[in-house]
Amino acid sequence: MLKIKKILVSQPKPTSDKSPYFDIATKYNVQIDFKPFIKVEGLNLQEFRSQRIEVLDYTAVIFTARTAIDHFFRLCDEMRITIPETMKYFCVSEKIALYLQKFIKYRKRKVFFPATETSKVEELLPQIKRHADEKYLYAVSDVCKDNFLTTLQENNIHCTKAIFYKTVSADFSKEESFDYDMLVFFSPEGINSLLKNFPNYEQGETIIAALGPKTAQAVTNANLRLDIAAGTPQVPSMTGAIEAFFKENKVNKK
Known about the structure:
The protein has 254 residues and is α/β, with parallel strands linked by helices. It has helices at residues 20-28, 45-49, 66-78, 94-99, 125-130, 147-154, 188-197, 213-221, 238-248, and strands spanning 6-9, 31-34, 38-42, 60-63, 88-91, 111-112, 135-141, 158-169, 182-185, 207-211, 228-230. It has a six-stranded mixed sheet with strand order 3-8-7-4-5-6. A five-stranded parallel sheet has the order 2-1-9-10-11, with helices on both faces.
């Protein structure tokens, strides 16, 4: 039997009262706090210009997130760049494509997205290949991997990666207590933030849960113990993994 009183989930608090996290809190009589360990910040003009990228040298932009759209148009506005009507936009989903309406006159002839809502950037490849003569700007964050960029280059597509925003650690104040029995992480950056805020962190008996193989590997690389692995075919969701762990270890059973 295992006793757990407080859990810290490194995400914003759910907006719906029907979140499975609240069900777990009630069912097992635990306190669940929500606090993102990371936050997104847009690059400033100096940071962006250090990449030596001229936006108007490109005829198409690839977006994988609404955040990328926000900071693309923000920086263009700060640089007093007027995006031409001929610019094409390739988005990983229809939802992200529709978000463009906030900034441009939405015309289907210049906005493209996959037919399936997988939100995987690879799904854009067929449409990009049909517009192989365009010069593509890949608007991303500083933690974006180069896999898709490599794929485009292998298909002789002219594409340049441009960082428009970055992921940074959220700071914990010295007054905040950090007496949690379980920590829940969703990205390697969350682990990095933990070590930045608490350089001498010792896990002890604290349970650590991680979503996905990359986050799990980050836990191991930090010489921490991984107790709960979510994001697997057997246990795809974090809440499902936590509940399975609770049942197996008879958490808070009298």
